Amino acid sequence: MKKILTLSAIxxxxxxxxxxQKFRDLETKYNETSSRAAKLEQDNLNQSIQINxxxxxxxxxxxxxxxxxxxxxDMETDYRLAKANLESLQSEYDDLSTRFATAVAGNRQENxxxxxxxxxxxxxxLKREAELQDQQRELNRLMAEFREKExxxxxxxxxxxxxxxxxxALRDKVMEALLGFTDRGLTVYTKDGKVYVxxxxxxxxxxxxxxxxxxxxxxxxQVATILAQNPEISVMVEGHTDNVPMxxxxxxxxxxxxxxxRATAITRILLENKGVSPSRVVSAGRxxxxxxxxxxxxxxxxxxxxxxxILTPRLDELFxxxxx
Length: 324
Known about the structure:
CATH 3.30.1330.60; 2 domains; 5-stranded mixed sheet; 7 helices
């Protein structure tokens, strides 16, 4: 009897050690995943801030462009008026010259008066010519500044338009590839310049499980095929749950653990495609803390139990222009 008790104790201690080792491995993976997720989230936040700053810069440059255009138009109007005035002065000068030539043989006093008027008219003419040249130089400077800012705005806008166009095309390609799953809890939409592939729990997992069913695997592999064709797209896989507490089973203690396991399961299927580099993909568990609707009805809780594949474009070209 004593030997039996001793053997049972040894088996119990050995089993506990194995369970604790699995727990520590999962906890280590969880911490690594959380760290990578936080970094990607910060990168995404920084990118969103930079995009917003870029849009503000474009708006500012556009306003400045309009102001420069108005200044240019005003300067051009002044220039035309000054030119007309110059032509009028030239006409007066020519008239005085004629009158002076005619009166050369006349009264000396009258001739002197005409000469003074002629000299004053000539001085005025030279002054107006100098002012006109200054206005022309300022007009040229404003025009050069206008062209430079217009070119920069056009370049930035072109890159943004190209990125948005590429993301719309990617969204359409994803929607076309996943058309057969749209009535089974899968939606594709764009938000903040990113493409979201959102899949309900019922398409991927059994309740409380993280093993992906056959139909879910087929949908995820369709997404992986598109990602392999678009190597410049970064990917984040996020697991989400409702707020109903989960009873811990083994190493999965709560909703956060479950969301991490589900995100990791989807990530592994994406990486089965050799065209999807692991460096492009990060998986993260959000648990119950990012619901899309209130957890106040069974239907809403079902909507919150989802996994999202978030596709983000690279804007290196745009940030290089801003940096320069």
